[in-house]
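Question: I have long wanted to understand how a fold can be written as tokens. Here is the record:
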Amino acid sequence: MKKILFLTPYPLNSAPSQRFRFEQYLPFFKKEGISYKVVSFLDEKTWAVFYKKGYTLQKIIGIIKGIINRHWIVFSLHQYDKLFIHREACLVGSAYFEWLYAKVFRKNIIYDFDDAIWIKDVSEVNKKLSWLKFPNKTDKIISYANIIIAGNNYLANYALQFNKNVKVIPTTIDINYHFSHKVFKQNEKIRIGWTGTITTNNHLKLLFPVLVEIKKKYPQVELVMISNAPIIDSSIEINYLKWDRATEINDLSSFDIGIMPLPNDEWAKGKCGFKGLQYMALGIPTIMSPVGVNNEIISDGENGFLATSEADWIEKLSRLIESKELREKTGKAGRKTVVERYSIEANREKYLSIFQKSI
């Protein structure tokens, strides 16, 4: 039986990038004769405060513990056929651990990434620790790995500069988990919804001028955000729902329209369209900015909408608000797209084959 050691930044069942890049495939591994162990860099206690303001000492202690544990791993490396590294083995510093495992201990590495992580992007709450980040190490990690799994073609083209063995596997959706739970509404308000985290809240802010106009035009509209932190802004009324794994699908299912605004920059081009895919999987009509992979996911006017300018956003939101028939038609087409191209089922064999093959 093959044995894989997964090295992840965050604990299991905590971060979206991990949950929808590889964690949802783990139940299939044993059926394929593959055993595994997952070792996160941050422990549960540190993760609980990592994106909260303050707690600097606790964060530093957690990082030091993570570094020590990454050193201890070398004593068990002989037990594993391959290492799987998601994003980076260590959240701070250079590509030292990847070099150590690949070059000194000669381990085969499967490297997976789903963002343009070679560009420095630090959350507001952790700016004090930004000097510990070395985004340029991504190039080295890619070169040390035996095979790369990239979340989209933009990321794959970047990786190909440093490693020719690159596979594109999109961030995927469990369509059995993402199945719409119709929510009974006590009023006739149409919900325009967005989901994200404190690290992407600024993307929603980009659409505030549009949402203010939509609210004036359609008083029956309710704006909803699901995140691990609210946006405090007096210019617009937002119904904030704190993200909770237990209620995630019910909360998302209450949306009538899902939105995914993005800035047109290099970081956003590396995004894998996950917010939009979540909406679409639930049959929610979706509007996205035409940035990066969003252009591949959405056929404008068929399985969703692409909107660039403020006028474009207002026009397409208005069409969906005014037509329940259009919302239902677009939502069904969106789910069909996810089932056929972006579901676990559609990508499972391709994904597992990477672990089954000898490198």
